Every structure is written in C-alpha cells, then in structure tokens.
Structure of DUF368 domain-containing protein:
Amino acid sequence: MADHLADRRPPLRPALDLGRGLLIGAVEVVPGVSGGTVALIVGVYTTLIEAASHVVRAVVALGDLPRGRGISRALAHLAAVRWSVVAPVLVGMVLAVVLGARVLAPLVEEHPTATRAVFGGMIAASLLIPVRLLGRSWTWRLSLLAGFAAAGAFLVTGLPSSRVIDPPLLLVALAAAVAVCALVMPGLSGAFLLLVFGLYETTLVAVNERDVPYILAFAIGAVVGLSLFVNLLRVLLARFREIMLALMTGLMLGSLRALWPWQDAFGQATPAGPDAVPMALLALGGAAVVLLVVAMQARLDRPRR
C-alpha cells in the first residue's frame, strides 16, 4: 500500500506533516473516530506502520548486545525510518492529544450530537479511501469479508459505556495495550475502546492533571501492545493487501454506529430528533472536507506530463 498525497514542494513538507499529525492526534481523543483512518486519509498510514515496525525491531535487536551485534542492527532499523516525515507527524500527534484533552473533549461533551454528525460524515466519506485503493480487485469473497467485519464493528460499537473512577494501574496498562492496536487499525477507535473499558474520561483527567503514575502505566501498556501488534500488521499489509483493505472497509463501515448523532448517556442510539436537518447538513460538511482531500490526493497522484 503506497502512501499518497506526495509532497511536490519540499520546503512545505514539515509543516504539512505537522498538520497531518495534528489531525490524527485530534481525532484520537474522540470516541468512535479512528486515528488510523485519518492516517490513511492524509497519506501517512503505511509510513507510520513501517516506522513503528522498525522501532520495535530496533528495541528487540538490543537484546543481542552480548554478541556485539545489537547496536549495529538497532541503528540499521532506526536509520530505515523516514524521520523527516515521522518526526513532525509525531510532534503534531502529541500536541493534538494534549490540546484535544482540553479543547476538543469539552466540545464533544457540550455539543455531542453536532460533533458526532460531523465526524460521522467524515468517516462515511473516508470509506472511499480503501475502496479506491482496492479498485477493480473487489471480489464477492472480499465483499463478504468486509460485511463480516462491518457486522463485528457494529456489535462492538454498540456496547454500553461506563466509567471506572480509580482503576488499578495494571488495568490501565492492559487497556492501553488493546486501545493502541486500534490506533493503527483503520476503523477501530482507541478512544472508543477506552470508553467501553470505562477509562476514557479517567484518562483525559489524568492527562489534564499530569497524573504521572497513570500516564506512565498507560505508556508502558501502549508500547507493549504496539510491539506485539505492529509487526504482525505490517506483514499482513504486505502479504494480504486486498484482504486487509477489505477488512478496513468493513471496520470503518460498522464503526459508523458509534457516530450516530443521537445517543443516550450510555452511548446507545436513539431516534433522530427535531434537529435532523441541521445535523444532516453538518454530516455533509464533514463528508465534503474528506472528499476535497481525496480530490486533492487524486490530483497530486496524477503523473505530470
């Protein structure tokens, strides 16, 4: 899977990559929206997966230090990372998560219906990305696989949410290990999984209050989960590209349930309210933003004559 939206003006690249990171990090604090999906939309998904895989293998290589080859192997893996792209993206993600915990999360809390409508429209339109990448490779088998993935995501996103006030740090680490896998898998929302585990609001409070033990436990769990999952995902994307794209399409489609604008306090869908028309317009606006990005991507991908 080749990354897209290739930069034709190198001087603007760091700023563009920083902006991509800001987008990815911002949606990660919104339950139901997948950072992996946004990474796919803005064209850095494969680069980030490859980078994470090399970093994990560099850490593993350090275990070969007694035989004197660990450092050279680790440096070789780190050198293979496209740091010129990955570094500004990561900076943007960290900034967005910190700022999003203070700005975006309260916005979602104060205007949940409107924000879900906007993000729902964006994710619905972003289904074009994996569909477009597969193109004519779609078969009835891949369509059936996408259907099963959509059904699974639909059921998972229908789980009622709760809140754990004072969780043990081991639970925090385990939840982070699972949630970070959703971060790198388009269609699955790490923030939503935290909501299901009852740790979403607790995690936001920990970030805002700089709760070091909580944040450290979360970071350790995330690193462990990413280490176990990212290499597997990298191999699957390389060897079973069509199958993985079909799965991504289904997961993204099924996860739209979490972004149905009208929900009760437990995250369960309710009938549309009298504000159906304004919400539909907001959803169309969100979709239009993604379609604009897709159109720009197609224009940049078009070979110059």
